[in-house]
Amino acid sequence: MSFILVAVLVLGAIGLVAAVVLYVCSKKFAVKEDPRIADVAALLPQANCGGCGFPGCGGLADALVKGADAGTLDGLFCPVGGQDVMGKVADLLGMAMANSEPMVAVVRCNGTCEHRPKIAEYSGLRTCTAMHACGAGETACGFGCLGCGDCVAACQFGAITINNETGLPEVDEDKCTSCGACVKACPRKIIELRKKGPKGRRVYVSCVNKDKGPVAMKACKTACIGCGKCEKECPFGAITVTNNLSYIDPDKCRLCRKCEKVCPTHAIVAVNFPASKPRPVAEESKDDGENVEQIKTEA
């Protein structure tokens, strides 16, 4: 009986000493958290999507408070909460928040099943990452969308779906929060966050193929061939051609759509514009035929 009593007393003493040590350490090494961090975090949507550049809403809240103390909130923005949430945060911290133009995810590939036929059959793990690691995929284009839906799985807001007819992902603008998860998930970097544009209108090159013109056109009928016609046509210097690929700068683009009209492969797309009058069939066929002949001649 005495052995049991001694053991109990010894364990009790050890527990008491440990409790005292822990209490002293908690007081000595305590880190005081600014109460504003919790208040800011409560205003954030708690999506923890990482679109703000921080691992979660708590990290953004901490950065916002520190930014307020430094006198600026530049570069800090919650894409999910948008301008409304950031306005509330700015009011809470007594800061002014600059207006940020809404962004939206854009799929820069127009290589549908019709334009980019399959030349092989993939039977491995059905993910874009796995297929990309194995090579070009099931088509001759080593730059285009693989259609396995990694972006769909990454989106927490149900804003992306795969169109069964085209085999390409489609973005629902009303659901997209521009968190950037789909951008990170795409192994071929065909998804880009671009300015939503006035009335949701925007113009961009729906291709990321960097092969030379004839090679790109052989793989996909709507590929950018780097001919430079759009660059020459743009009166605002918004288009540049690098590595056989055109790119439209959304900050310089004035949505005149002149580039769209001169693109021989229709790689440039305009979204949410009123329907334009169709070109005469004979004229369109003649132009496309001349462009194709020019490409073959250059090859």
TrEMBL record:
InterPro entries: 4Fe-4S_dom (IPR007202), 4Fe4S_Fe-S-bd (IPR017896), 4Fe4S_Fe_S_CS (IPR017900), 4Fe4S_Ferredoxin_RnfB (IPR050395), Elect_transpt_cplx_RnfB/RsxB (IPR010207). Residues 145-165, 167-196, 213-244, 247-273 form the 4Fe-4S ferredoxin-type domain. [4Fe-4S] cluster 3 binds at C155, C176, C179, C182. Its main location: membrane. Binds 3 [4Fe-4S] clusters. [4Fe-4S] cluster 2 binds at C141, C145, C148, C151, C186. Residues 278-299 are annotated as: Disordered. Residues 32-95 form the 4Fe-4S domain. It is found in: Cell membrane. Gene3D superfamilies: 3.30.70.20, Electron transport complex subunit B, putative Fe-S cluster. Residues 1-26 are annotated as: Hydrophobic. The complex is composed of six subunits: RnfA, RnfB, RnfC, RnfD, RnfE and RnfG. [4Fe-4S] cluster 1 binds at C49, C52, C57, C78. Keywords: 4Fe-4S, Cell membrane, Electron transport, Iron, Iron-sulfur, Membrane, Metal-binding, Repeat, Translocase, Transport. This is Ion-translocating oxidoreductase complex subunit B. CDD domains: MtMvhB_like. Part of a membrane-bound complex that couples electron transfer with translocation of ions across the membrane. Belongs to the 4Fe4S bacterial-type ferredoxin family. RnfB subfamily. Its EC number is 7.-.-.-. Its cofactor is [4Fe-4S] cluster. Signal peptide: none annotated. It comes from Xylanibacter rodentium.
